[in-house]
Design a protein that fits this description.
By secondary structure, this protein is mainly beta. Helix content is 14%, strand content 70%. It is globular, with a radius of gyration of 14 Å.
Length: 83
């Protein structure tokens, strides 16, 4: 497993979080790859101390077996909103 996958598994085992997509704008689609600029918030529902945050960046999606799948996330900014 990749380090990212391990970190995500630990995050989901520790916290109940709510992700809210605020903006999503398709920047480009070239062949089987799309780039989507996004802003979302992450808020803790339950678990230990956690700083809520607003994250902006680009999701890179690739078409696989006829469906778009998240391939990579390029984070451009993180603003911590407090607890």
């Amino acid at each position: 497993r990749s380090d990212r996958k391990k970190a995500a598994e630990q995050l989901f085992a520790t916290y109940e979080l709510r992700w809210t997509l605020k903006d999503a704008v398709v920047e480009s689609i070239v062949g089987d790859e799309a780039r989507v600029r996004y802003t979302h918030t992450t808020e803790k529902i339950s678990g230990p101390d956690f700083d809520n945050m607003r994250v902006s960046g680009v999701h890179v999606l690739r078409k696989h077996a006829g469906a778009w799948r998240l391939y990579n996330m390029e984070i451009s900014s993180v603003v911590y909103l407090g607890k």
